[in-house]
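Progress report, Aim 2. The chain analyzed during this reporting quarter is listed below.
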Amino acid sequence: MAKGYWVSVYPAISDPEGLTAYDKLAGPAVQAGGGRVLSLLPSRGGRVVAHEAGTTQRVVLIEFDSFEQAVAAYESEAYQKALVALPDGFERDFRIIEGID
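Predicted structure tokens for the chain:
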């Protein structure tokens, strides 16, 4: 079964501290849904090289055991509460994608 991934790119964040409430709720919701954070850049000291229309802002990659599990985690009550905590003034490109076996 192919894995599922959440891919989030934040091309513009006007208030990084404003994401604190979201992060506190989203982390446990992701873990409860079976997600594993593979990459959280650049805030955890990782390196980023952006090409073409790429961004060096916050990039998050989370792995789930299946695409269905990734969708269910997003639709969970716990993660929906985290989404409500997202502050105004940010831009995010969020996708749920199916991996290749």
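The chain is about 30% helix and 30% strand. Residues 4-98 form a domain with the Alpha-Beta Plaits fold (CATH 3.30.70.100). These observations will guide the mutagenesis work planned for the next reporting period.
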